[in-house]
Amino acid sequence: MIQQSTQPIIHFQGIEKSFGGAKALSDVSLTVHRGTVHGLVGQNGAGKSTLIKLLAGLHRPDAGQVEIDGEAYDHLTPHLVESLGIHFIHQDRLLVPSFTVGEALFLGREPRIPGTPFLDRRQMQRRAQEVLQRYFGLSLPNSALISQLSTAEKQIVQITRALLDRPKILVFDEPTAALVKREADLLFTLIRRLRDEGITILYISHYLQEIEALCDVVTVLRNGRHVATKPIAETSAAEIAGLMVNRDIGDLFPIREKSPGAALLTVEGLSATGRYRNVGFTLYRGEVLGLTGLLGSGAKDVLRTLFGLETAEEGTVTVAEQAPWRASPVQAARRKLALVPEDRRRHGVALDLSVSENTTLASLPRFTRLGLVDRASEAAEADRLITRLQIKTAGREALLRTLSGGNQQKVAIAKWLSRHSDIYLLDEPTVGVDIAAKVEIYALIAELAEKGAGIIVLSSDLPELIGLTDRILIFFRGEIAREVVSDTITEDALLAEVTGSSEATRYVG
Amino acid sequence: MLVDTALLVPASARADTPSPQKTTVSQGLAGIALRGGALAVFVTVFVLFAFASPIFLTPFNLGNILAQSAISGVLAIGLTVVIIAGGGNVVSGGIDLSLAANMGLSAAVYAALSQAGQVDGVAVLAALGTGLAIGAVNALAVTWARIVPLLATLAVMNVVGGLELVLTQNTVIPAITPLLESLSGSGPFGIPALAYVLLGFALITAVVVQATPLGLRLYAVGEFPEAARASGLALKRFIAGSFLFSGLSGGIAGILSAAYLSGSTTGAGELLLPVVVTALLGQVFSRRLVPTITGTLLSALFVGVLINGFQLLNLSSTLVSGIQGLLILLVVSATTLLRPKEG
Amino acid sequence: MSAVPALGAERRLVEAASRLALPVALVAVFLLFSALAPGFLAAANLQSVLVNNFTLLSIVAVAMTFAVSAGGIDLSVGTAVDFASFAFVSLVLAGQPVPLALAAGLGGGAVVGLFNAVLIAGIGISPFLATLGTLFIGRSVQQLLTNGGNPVYLPPAGVPESFHLLGRGSLAGLPVPLLIAALVIALAAVILARSRFGRVVTAVGIEAEVVRYSGLPLKAHLAATYVLVALIAAVAGLVLTSTVTVYIPNSGNAFLLNAIGAAFIGTTLHRHGRPNIAGTVLGVLLLSLVANGLLMSGLNFYWQQVGTGLLIFTVLALSFASRKV
Fold this sequence. Notes:
- The complex is a heterotrimer.
- Chain A has helices spanning 48-55, 78-83, 101-106, 121-136, 151-164, 181-196, 208-214, 237-244, 299-306, 329-334, 344-348, 355-359, 375-388, 405-418, 435-450, 462-468, 491-499; strands at residues 8-19, 22-33, 37-41, 63-68, 71-73, 86-89, 169-173, 200-204, 217-222, 225-231, 263-272, 276-284, 288-292, 314-319, 337-340, 368-369, 372-373, 423-427, 454-458, 471-476, 479-485.
- Chain A is an alpha/beta fold.
- Chain A has 3 domains: 8-244, 3-Layer(aba) Sandwich (Rossmann fold), CATH 3.40.50.300; 249-336 and 422-428 and 453-509, Rossmann fold; 343-421, no CATH class.
- The two termini of chain A are 37 Å apart.
- Chain B is mainly α.
- Chain B has a domain at 57-269.
- Chain B is 70% helix and 1% strand.
- Chain B has helices at 21-52, 59-86, 99-115, 120-143, 149-168, 178-184, 193-211, 213-223, 225-230, 235-260, 272-281, 293-312, 319-338, and strands at 173-174, 263-264.
- Chain C has helices at residues 5-36, 43-69, 77-93, 98-123, 127-145, 165-168, 176-194, 196-213, 218-244, 256-267, 277-296, 303-322; strands spanning 152-153, 170-171, 174-175, 246-247.
- Chain C contains 12 helices and 4 strands.
- Chain C has one domain: ABC transporter involved in vitamin B12 uptake, BtuC (Orthogonal Bundle), CATH 1.10.3470.
- Chains in contact: A-B, A-C, B-C.
- The A-C interface holds A 20, 309, 329-330, 332-334, 339, 341, 346-353, 357, 361-362, 364-365, 368, 371-373, 375, 399, 415, 419 and C 1-2, 190, 194-197, 199-200, 202-203, 206-207, 209-217, 272.
């Protein structure tokens, strides 16, 4: 335990939380001290967001309690949290797009012209100017609407909104994910000043350099467990990365014969202004190719372009020996490409369609006789895939809504197995998937590759990438910065490549 | 004009951002163009009519336009408040299909009570009470029973329309009362009293919606419920309140129509879709392309000018609905095509 | 997630009850009027319910069901009815053969559908606003075509016998309009529930983006849906015209609100609350029976609309309230 000169303000004690059998947090105890900037780090699925949602009163712990300012609570509610002076700066900015900055800042506590029921717009504008100027040195025109602001400016407006409530604790959840360096630096200056004014900051980030530069103390979570809490002065980014990395995950990944066959998909000189530049690579039969990069690095845009959801300005995509083509999702599916999108619940599966209907959605022609769906063969196909992928469901007629995240994801993949796809584009395939389903999905990917399919996995889960893929393309600033053979890179080294810290620069955007 | 991109950092430092600025700037410009275009069309039409007909610009005729627009204007303003609080998605968001029927029933209640010898005060209270009661049923159906507004108000529209038929036996109930006479007469400067009612109603509503915290919160509730909830606002109260207000508007419009037509007449339901279009069209007259009271008033007057001008020029006023339809499609196409693609 | 079993059972019961709202209402209305209204049960009356109240509305409501299935709505179904009627009457008046005139009628409806398809699938306007615009433009177009809205009558003498077949004919003792409605209903039920097209349309209504991400042509399906809606509505226009031998401008709009009501009431019948043809047809039947029963029970004619409205309201309230999470 680290001794701190100030007294504790948040204390988690023995927190346990499971979702449908999957443990998200086990026996987490953690103390945050008043007036410090406390970093919280961990890989995807480490339990950071679950812990924050507990603090926000959005989840209820299965066991354990939270002490705020010496007062113990079994669970929190959003209302209680607000009255305790805890504010959250979320990634999704809750600001009304058609409002002016002043209106957005003061919604819910609008100043009135004294003695009247009317809005004091002038005061709203003046105070908005004043606080933005004071905290950020930022000057926005009075008439600017939220929808016209940059992402960074919206973020700043949201922070300012929280500051107006004179919070005791501010929680930042990946606040710099959409900021450029100068903006992030401004934010850090502000955070330090807030700390000096006595506000406690809980700071969640992927960027270890930020944590190192900004935080007083850092806590590392791994697999739902509290691994370490250390004063930043006594540690380093390298040590933190080491603590984050999961050493006992190796056996999750199936052993696979890695013998790539003929070229299946060739990408040459793909460029799109502001998204990616001169991207080229080849995917071979039987290969699992990894893509990774920070938000905005271009990796996701390239994947979406392959499936025809975005368009490239230059370059060609060639499938097998066919002519290069301009993709649309219809064309892509015809060329046996399959996309399992990241936003499963909006793009991957229809929650209010049944398992069977989702499974055959992309392959309906196979089950159609004279324009009518042949229910018997459709049912047989659904049952076959339910068995093959071990999809846990009450039956093929159950709505997807009733399945767990992992099983929904299996259906999203089953849809393309049913279409006999050749090239699988998997976008963050195991986000929100419990560990048992994860292992099954990994095994399935390996099996597909062994049968001659080509698979591209876009993931920010580094152990997953290393364990699953043959090669990894690291995207940085819209280009393929490096290609590495998965067997030859450690997680720490990969993390350094992805965050660009090996170049001693930081790029986000 | 509105957007200064170099707000936070010098432009050079931003060079590496995949900039969303370009789209918002062009969108902002397009919005201004759209609004300017709408106003330009209004002014052009106005000027054309002024040249084409010597009567058009007379105070008497202009007053007439206001009076003729009074009923649909009041209804459209009521609907605008529902759209503000319910959001722009017409199927799942704010819509009140019962407004025109509400007006019909309120007018019938007023006329029937007057004919039965009740004094104006009682009849007025009954008419407004009818409107409010209809609004309350809508409010309950939407917030408590959670029926989507489109369906809830559709069913209420049927009931209310039926009650009007039961009450009037599908006949005209004449009513001549001191109040109606003064409403259908002229006010100061020889301008019809109905014109003053419309402007007064619009002014009061505009002040509340555009200049009080209540109004600001209504917009937040409709446009971004999560943000409103995060600001501690009770969403259901605002939505229920908006339906009560539109119900009251229906009651007021009922009294106005009884004055304009000297009693209650059948066929109030015909007014529904024109009122919906008027309220939706109003959005082009606002700076931020959102529903506003002043925008709706302008839109109601625009439609009034079209109808009046066509009458004066002996042109078929049947073109009016076509022009409304075209305008709404043009406006919505423009905004849809300008919207940045979902990424 | 891990609800107590008893609670789950209760929940299932509530769900089942909400699905029963429509059939129960139908039986209740039937029994009520059988008891209250002498003559309601007479075969002649029931047939008149079917021919006069049910036929045209059921066709239009079936059309509407496709738009609702695709997650939209079509406020211009009445416009398609009118355009079909106008084209049909105009060609007969011009002395063209009836089959050609019928085809032209379908074409007239299709024009409306294509216009909607361009707006909704092409430009991406929301169906409510797009079809509202179509409705308004359609009004002016009809008035321009008819000198400000004058009905187009067919001279009783000059009309070929075959003209009346659709509206007034009978086949094997059954009225042709009813047979046409039955055919439309049966075809629509097969298309929506059993065909590949119907499956994709249903998926579009549930989560359009998933359809696109599954490599299916989303826009083509949206466009085809609105053309299909207009074509079915056009059939109603042809039957209507053949019955009354006149084209009255802007008369088709009368079906609009009841068609929407029936399609949405019908969703309460489906296990997952989806729009479905059987539900829509039962909804139309309910509306028709109430209209006729109120008439037969000697109640004031004008109570019909109140009764219908209250009934729609109750069915919706019951079904939505029981769906509360």
